[in-house]
Amino acid sequence: MKEYGYIKVGAFVNKLHLGNPKENAKEIIKGLTEGIKKEVAILLTPELSLTGYTCGDMFLQDKLLKESLNALEEIKETTKDKDIIVLVGIPLEIDNELYNCATVLEKGKILGVIPKTFIPNYNEFYEARWFSSSKNLKRNKINLLGEEVPVSTNLLFRENEICFAVEICEDLWTVNPPSNSHAQAGANIIFNLSSSNEGIGKHEYRKNLVSMQSAKTISAYIYASSGPGESSSDILFGGASMIYENGSLLAENKRFTFENNLITADIDIKKLQNDRLKNKSYMANAKLEEYLTIPVFLKDSKKLERVYKEYPFVPSNILERKKRSEEILDIASTALARRLMTLNHSKCVIGMSGGLDSTLAFLIIIRALKKLNRDATDILGITMPGFGTTSRTYDNACNLVKEYGGVLKEISIKEACLVHLKDIGLDENDRSVAYENAQARERTQILMDVANKENGIVIGTGDLSELALGWCTYNGDHMSMYAVNSSIPKTLVRYLVEYVKEEETGKKKEILEDILNTPISPELLPPDKLGNMLQKTESTIGPYVLHDFFLYHFLRYGAEPKKLLYIAINTFKDTFTKEEIKKWLKVFLNRFFTQQFKRNCIPDGVKVGSISLSPRGDLRMPSDMDKTIWTELD
Fold it and tell me: Which residues contact 29 (CB under 8 A, 6 or more apart)?
């Protein structure tokens, strides 16, 4: 999986035997063994995992320090023939001072020692009584268990583009955590050995802190804290562990358990690196100190444990989805309202097809007019039945406009199109792209001319997915005077309409329900003898659930085509065959690169999410770019 930029990490909270390094070493070795079975490349343990954090003045006893070294050696020897790196917490005496340290072990060697920098000495913490800050270090190498070992906070452990660094507990809680510098120096994974006690509300604060640091540093942040085996004389440790990637939670354990527990996750390094490349403020004002880079060998796992959402644009949590839907509708309708204010009370002219896209655009217009305290009669909804229009979509288009109080106008395009087809010498029985596009352009001409006549603007209905695929007629439905759906993908359009439907009652709800159940179609080819729709978009260009998945990972994280295929196969293994996914990915890539000329001249339209294809904003791409390297999937 390293080929695609993945590395599997683990956070292990060991069953603690307070003050007994030998027994703690046994528990850590159990975790190490379990981690190997799960193909973990790097395993994190809590702060002072060999002794426990709450040993108090016993940290100053030679016996505990000596037994800690013996326990560390046992773990070190265990790693000799193991393909895993393990981070272990230990108190170490260096030049007459005691340091709270993390040790990095690989293949029977100690690769480095990282001392804690910020030593808490307030409220329930008295750590400065025993430990010194890394700032006190007088040298950068020590002899540890017969090895010359680098000791510093500024250590990077690297294999190619995978690079990790370490900080310890309080380091994270400071105004300027060491991980800020680690990340700018190249670390894309941060490990934190911690001992963080529990208290009302503290766990949520701790999670927010880890999430924010992960997002701020655009890194994976792996956190493991001491468990309830610590002393409970005055405080309790719950054993929280969590894995975040750029602010998103990938894995979290169950706290308050006395037994060993391990969580794992696949970190997407390429995804992190892509975000760093895009963020031109990332390296601003970087003050890079001298870092020592230590090469490591990272085990490659065979199976991707990570689960990707089939609908990356749509929140899976219902409450979050409702909240997101309301925010999107607010953004889109406010943006349109702002444009209408500039145009001095222009009417909104919209082509109503009875499909999802025109329905969503219509609902956004309703909201925009409400924000301006204007009546729905300022919407002119035009239905333009053509050769492929079915009674179902026609009725839904008409009824929707009427129910919301808009002005409905019907203008058939059949006669005009027949004249036009005759003018250009196209047989009316021809079903080529010219036959279809003539209808789309006729409709656009009607909308534009009516808008001029009525002092209005044409509101575009095309969505983000259609723009990505170029599934629009150039200077037909491709064109409008303001495009409210242009950054909303097809899979999200459905949920937004559904959200509005759930807020409605009676006839409005019935109409929206039927629109949601209507197959997606441009309705440019005649229906069958019974009036049933024959032309279905997804039969021609492929399932939108796949195209939106490709679009999200391709543009949001710069995933290369072979990685897109790999994660899509893992994600949709129960829905589509490998051959089907590969086929539609080729369609996506071919259409994406050949249809840029349409995107280079799209109308204004507000960005509502993380992805937009506007040539003025998010995507500057030549129309004549060679697509060869992007379409090589074999």
Answer: 74, 75, 78
